[in-house]
Amino acid sequence: MSQESLPSDGGPEHPDALPEYAERVLEVTELIPPGRVMTYGDVAEWLGEGGPRQVGRVMALYGGAVPWWRVVRADGVLLPGHELRALGHYRTEGTPLKEAGRAAEGHVPRLDMRRARWDGGGHTEGHT
Question: Distances in Å between the alpha carbon of 114 and those of 9, 37, 38, 92, 99?
Answer without folding.
Answer: 34, 10, 11, 19, 14
